[in-house]
Write a structure and sequence with these properties.
By secondary structure, this protein is α/β, with parallel strands linked by helices. Helix content is about 45%, strand content about 15%. The chain has eleven helices and ten strands. The strands form three sheets. Strands 1, 4, 5, 6, 7 and 10 form a six-stranded parallel β-sheet that branches. The protein has a two-stranded parallel ribbon with strand order 2-3. A two-stranded parallel ribbon has the order 8-9. α7 links the parallel β6 (about 160-165) and β7. The chain is globular and about 70 Å long.
Length: about 300
């Protein structure tokens, strides 16, 4: 009986190896779902007791699913926008004109737009992404995002808005109808930026008020559920908390798979901390708002990546 069990396992393993290793892998349009299955198949194959030559063939065939370190992922962080003197200009603002210039430059330099799930799989598992990838993020959910939304559509770039959910519909934040429109049109994704504790978040963490923080995060998740919006990301208020393990457990509990910080580390790398994804702020206060400085920054960014 034992002999027949081992014989079955041997035959099945051989069949499994041939089946998976003979598949034609379409790498031109690798969806995140297919990538997840490929990672499973790849790990399953390598766990089997197979000849070294066959193992090398499998590695060779599957390696194109993964980053070869030529890829670069740039994540930019914007806040508010203004058009003219009638709008309030803040130190973290960017003019609408400058924002369009930024997208023109990104296009000229062949940056391709990616989604949050692309970022998740790239950072967590090393999934292959376009050689020059960019994700545009917009913190706080300012209603003047609608100034630049037509520009996003014009250039075909995706965006992630981090909502302070407890203030949706206030005098300065997007309302539910606008959020619904953006969701339905599919170019914009959403992340949580807390419910109402944004300004007190850093102090609350320092004082270890985890119960209060958890209640706020739950309220934020409840808002997204009520709007039928799926989100996998949390954006740390004031870019604080990315190395707090207890906070990360709370985020995981409420379905967040990753989190954005704001450490201005230029290069986001595979297999790094998924709960501390760095972004580059673009604003008046750091001087990257103008066309000339933005382009110089990108050229230096690409040169230093080599």
């Amino acid at each position: 009986m034992v002999f027949f069990i081992f014989l079955f396992i041997f035959i099945y393993s051989g069949f499994y190896i041939k089946l998976l290793s003979s598949k034609e892998l379409d790498l031109s349009n690798l969806s995140n779902l297919n990538f997840e299955k490929a990672v499973y198949d790849y790990g399953r194959l390598l766990s089997l007791d197979i000849p070294e030559k066959e193992k090398l063939n499998i590695i060779k065939k599957y390696k194109n699913f993964f980053s070869n370190k030529n890829e670069t992922l740039l994540i930019l962080m914007y806040h508010d926008f203004y058009r003219d003197s009638r709008d309030t200009m803040k130190k973290y603002s960017v003019t609408v004109e400058d924002f369009e210039n930024h997208l023109q430059i990104l296009k000229e330099l062949n940056f391709e737009s990616v989604s949050m799930m692309d970022v998740y799989y790239y950072v967590k598992f090393g999934k292959k992404i376009p050689e020059r990838s960019v994700l545009l993020t917009f913190d706080d959910g300012y209603k003047k995002f609608m100034y630049i939304y037509p520009i996003l559509k014009k250039y075909g770039y995706k965006g992630v808005i981090s909502l302070i959910t407890g203030y949706v519909g206030s005098s300065w934040e997007l309302n539910k109808d606008q959020i619904k429109l953006l969701k339905e049109e599919g170019l914009v994704e959403f992340a949580s930026h807390s419910d109402k504790i944004h300004n007190e978040f850093k102090k609350m963490l320092q004082n270890k008020k985890y119960d209060e923080i958890e209640k706020d995060i739950k309220k934020s998740r409840d808002f997204f559920n009520s709007m039928n919006i799926e989100t996998i990301a949390f954006t740390y208020p004031l870019s604080y908390g990315s190395h707090d393990e207890k906070l990360q457990k709370i985020l995981l509990k409420y379905g967040f798979k990753m989190a954005f910080s704001g450490w201005n580390d230029r290069y986001v790398k595979p297999n790094s901390n998924i709960f501390s994804i760095s972004r580059i702020e673009v604003s008046i206060r750091n001087g990257l708002n103008t066309k000339e400085k933005f382009k110089t920054f990108l050229l230096n960014y690409l040169e230093n990546k080599k």
